[in-house]
Amino acid sequence: MYRMRYLMRVGVISDTHGYMDPRALLLLQEAEHIIHAGDIGDYSIISELEQIAPVTKVRGNVDRDGQSALCPDVEILELAGFKIYLTHEFKPPKTIQDPLLHNLQSEDFKIVIYGHSHIAYQKTWNDILFFNPGAAGKRRFKVIPSIGLLLLKESIVESEIVTL
Description:
This protein is mainly beta. It has helices at about 20-25, 45-50, 100-105, and strands spanning about 5-15, 35, 55, 75-80, 80-85, 110-115, 120-125, 130, 145-155, 155-164. The longest helix has 8 residues, at about 100-105.
């Protein structure tokens, strides 16, 4: 029996707003790469995450000062052969006819990661995973804090939202 092996474990976190929840740090311990989708707040959060694994980050709408403000608005990266589009504010498609899907497919993106809404979201449209890990900072807007985990395999992405 053929067993598909994983290529990389990726932790995804967003909207920390200057607070690093110790539960999130524990859940990210096995990550081989961490993605922060903006609204970092205090940049020391990135330093804490870098103690676990390399970090790719973007700034969010609250990242107006200090080192967090120097982060890019968009990052394009490739992990384990998967091309990833990372930004803070993003609206996923609502229909299969959305021109956004065609644009992302023509650029060969397999994963779109974003934050901002504080609402966890994971849905695949035309073989592109749209993934928002929710907000990992202190609880706001009656939304339970969460992070995301991605398991990149040879030809598929497994995604999970983990509540804190």
